[in-house]
Specification:
The structure is a single chain. This protein is of the alpha+beta class. It has a domain of 84 residues: Rod shape-determining protein MreC, domain 1 (Thrombin, subunit H). 66% of the residues lie in helices and 13% in strands. The chain has three helices and six strands. A six-stranded antiparallel β-barrel has the order 1-2-5-4-3-6. Strand 4 and strand 5 form a beta hairpin. The longest helix has 156 residues. The radius of gyration is 64 Å and the shape is rod-shaped. The mean pLDDT is 81.
Length: 279
């Protein structure tokens, strides 16, 4: 083989090596792209799955956000309503506080007035103590006057004889007056007249207190001629209930006590009260 043939063979051998190399590279490249395509497809599928998962999570989050937003809106509305209620309650409490402050001021004014009255009473008590000392001094003077009166009494005893004669004359007149009273059917007991009011009196029981034999109030008083220890009769219709005695009087009413020894029935409000002059 000549030189040209050897070079030619060498070139063919080199070209064969180059072709084999190109074929190997082409085959290797084709195999790598297929794997990458499969890998990319797998990644795409994973991405789609992840997208679906993220979309589902997004939808769920949007639902939760919407729900929480509604709850938040409702909470805000409730809080606003509660604020209005608290403001109204606060206004009411403020009004009550003003009223309580006014009432407190009035009570303080009453307390101050009471303190002033107490001070006046203390001054009155002090003045009364002075009056008591004066009264005790007057009592001592009265005792002294009593001694002088006793001396005069001895002098008056001497005049008793003269008065005895006059008493006999008065007794005769009394017997005559007693006879006249008996003839006219009138009582000769002074108690039947001494305990009567100055004027003919008639009224009603207004209030009964402290039981059947206790105190009661009638609707006539000193303006009607009543005074302490006057005795009055009590009736209910035709039923006689007993006697009462005046304890204290006012112009248009009196406090009386029931006399147990004369009681013949239970006295009640509305019963008639009268003096014997109305019998």
């Amino acid at each position: 083989m000549n030189l040209v043939g050897k070079i030619f063979v060498g070139i063919i051998a080199l070209m064969s090596v180059v072709c084999l190399t190109v074929s190997a590279v082409s085959y290797a490249s084709h195999h790598n792209w297929k794997e990458k395509t499969a890998e990319l497809k797998k990644q795409l599928d994973d991405a789609k799955q992840q997208q679906q998962t993220l979309t589902s999570q997004k939808t769920e989050l949007e639902s939760k956000i919407s729900s929480e937003q509604q709850i938040y809106t409702a909470s805000i509305a409730a809080l606003e309503s509660k604020i209005e209620t608290l403001e109204s309650s606060n206004k009411t409490l403020n009004d009550k506080n003003v009223a309580l402050q006014k009432d407190l001021d009035q009570r303080l004014a009453v307390i101050q007035a009471n303190n002033t009255h107490i001070n006046d009473l203390r001054q009155t008590l002090s003045s009364t103590s002075i009056d008591l000392a004066k009264a005790q001094q007057l009592r001592a003077n009265y005792l002294q006057d009593l001694e002088q009166t006793m001396e005069k009494l001895h002098e008056l005893s001497a005049k008793f004889g003269d008065l005895s004669e006059k008493n006999d004359d008065l007794q005769a007149e009394y017997d005559k007056a007693l006879e006249i009273l008996n003839q006219n059917g009138l009582s000769s007991d002074p108690k039947d007249y001494g305990d009567l009011p100055k004027f003919a009196a008639q009224g009603k029981i207004e209030v009964v207190r402290e039981g059947n034999d206790g105190l009661l109030m009638i609707n006539i008083g000193s303006d009607d001629g009543l005074s302490e220890h006057n005795k009055l009769d009590v009736r209910r219709g035709d039923s006689y209930l007993g006697k009462i005695e005046v304890v204290t009087t006012e112009p248009n009413r009196a406090i009386c006590k029931v006399l147990p020894e004369y009681r013949q029935g239970v006295m009640k409000e509305g019963d008639n009260v009268y003096s014997q002059k109305f019998n």
